[in-house]
Amino acid sequence: MSDQPIGVVGAGTMGQGIAQVAVASGFSVHLYDVADEQLSRAEANIDKGLGKLVAKDKISEADKAAALSRLSTTTTLDALNDCAVIIEAAPEQPELKEKLFRDLSRLSSTTILASNTSSLSLTRLAAVCEHPERVVGMHFFNPVPVLKLVEVIRAEQTSDATVAEIETLAKALGKTAVPVGDAPGFAVNRLMVPMINEAAFIVQEGTATPEAVDDAMKLGAAHPMGPLALADLIGLDVCLAIMEVLQEGFGDPKYRPCPLLKRMVSAGYLGRKSGRGFYVYE
Ligand SMILES: NC(=O)c1ccc[n+]([C@@H]2O[C@H](COP(=O)([O-])OP(=O)(O)OC[C@H]3O[C@@H](n4cnc5c(N)ncnc54)[C@H](O)[C@@H]3O)[C@@H](O)[C@H]2O)c1
Questions:
Q1: Which residue lies with its CA nearest to atom 8 of ligand 1?
Q2: Is 35 found in the same domain as 111?
Q3: Distance between CA atoms of residues 180 and 186, nearest Å
Q4: Which among 192, 194, 269, 202 has a CA at the least distance from the CA of 232?
C-alpha cells in the first residue's frame, strides 16, 4: 500500500494532522482543498509540526526534509486518481460530503474512500458511491499527531477486505484501530459528549461550579482534563451538534442537550476559540 500515495481531502485542522502523520510515516500524500490559501497554511503548519518533532529529537532534520518532500498539494480532485486510499476531512455537512464521495468514487475503481466524519452515517455516504464496499469510516482524534486512536467504522456495505486494509494503514501510521459499528456518535463521542452534557446540567442546577466539576473528575476519576475544560477545547457548538445527532439518531430523551449548553452556544460562548466558554481565555 505504501507504494501508492494517500489522498487527504480537506486541509483544515484534521486534514493537516492526518497528512503530517502520513508523510512522517513514509507515505506520499496528495493534500486536496478547494482553497489555495488553506493549502499554503497547511504546508506551513505541517512544516511547524514536523519541526516540533525535530526539537524533541524524535526525528532528524533530514527525516523532516524527506517527509516534506513526500507532500504535494492540489486543488484538482483528479490529481487523487492514483491514490490507494483517500481520507476525507472536509466540513461536517452531509450534502458536501455526499457530493465529494460521489465524485471521488468515479476517480478509480480500486481506491478505498475513508471518511473522518465525527457523526454522519457511513452507510448513507457509501450509498451514493459507485463501489460502496470500499467506503469506510476512519475517525482520527484531535490533535492527530498526538492521539493514538482511530475508530474504524464499518458501513453496512463495507467489505472485510476494506476493513482489513484500513486497519493495516492505521497501524502503519502508528495508530491503534478500534472497530465500531455505524451508530450515532460511534463509541468515543457517544460516551464522552453526554458526560460533558451532564457536567453542564450540574453547573446549570448550581450543584457545583465548573472548577469543582473539573477538579472532581481529574482527582476522583483520573481524567487528565475535566469535562468542562474539555468542552471548551472541543468547542461548545461542536458538543451541542453531537448531542443533537445522538438525540435525533436514537430518539432517546436521555440525550437531551442541556439548556445551559444551548444558551451558551446562542450567546457565542463557544469555548477557547471564542475566548469564553465555561472558562474565560485571555
Ligand atoms: N476538529 C476536530 O476535533 C475533529 C475531530 C474528529 C473528526 N473531525 C471531523 O473531521 C472533518 C474535518 O474537520 P476539521 O475540524 O478539520 O474542519 P476544518 O474546518 O478545520 O477544515 C475543513 C477543510 O475543508 C475544506 N473544504 C471546504 N469545502 C471543501 C470541499 N468541497 N472539498 C474539500 N475540502 C473542502 C476547507 O477549506 C477546510 O480547509 C469533519 O468531518 C469533522 O467532523 C473533526
A1: 118
A2: yes
A3: 6
A4: 269
Rounded to the nearest 5°, which phi and psi values hold at 248? -70, -40
Ligand 1, pocket-test mutation among 14, 38, 102, most atoms within 8 A of CB: 14
55's CB contacts (< 8 A; 6+ apart) are none
Active site includes 139?
A: yes
The tens digit of pLDDT for each residue in 82-93 reads 999 999 999 988
CATH number of the domain bearing residue 24: 3.40.50.720
Cβ(224) – ligand 1 distance below 6 Å: no
Catalytic status, residue 189: yes
Same domain, 71 and 87: yes
Ligand 1 centre to CA of 215 (Å) is 32
CB 166 within 8 Å of CB 87: no
User: What would the pLDDT profile of 105-132 be if each residue is shown by its tens digit?
Assistant: 999 989 999 999 998 999 999 999 999 9
How far is the C-alpha of 152 from the C-alpha of 179, rounded, in Å? 5
Residue range of the domain that includes 197: 189-274
CB atoms within 10 A of CB 49: 20
Q: Is the CB of 184 under 6 A from ligand 1?
A: no
Q: Catalytic: which of 43, 88, 151, 165?
A: 151
Tell me the whole-structure pTM to 2 decimals: 0.93
All 3 cell numbers of residue 216? 472532581
Is residue 118 flagged as an active site residue? yes
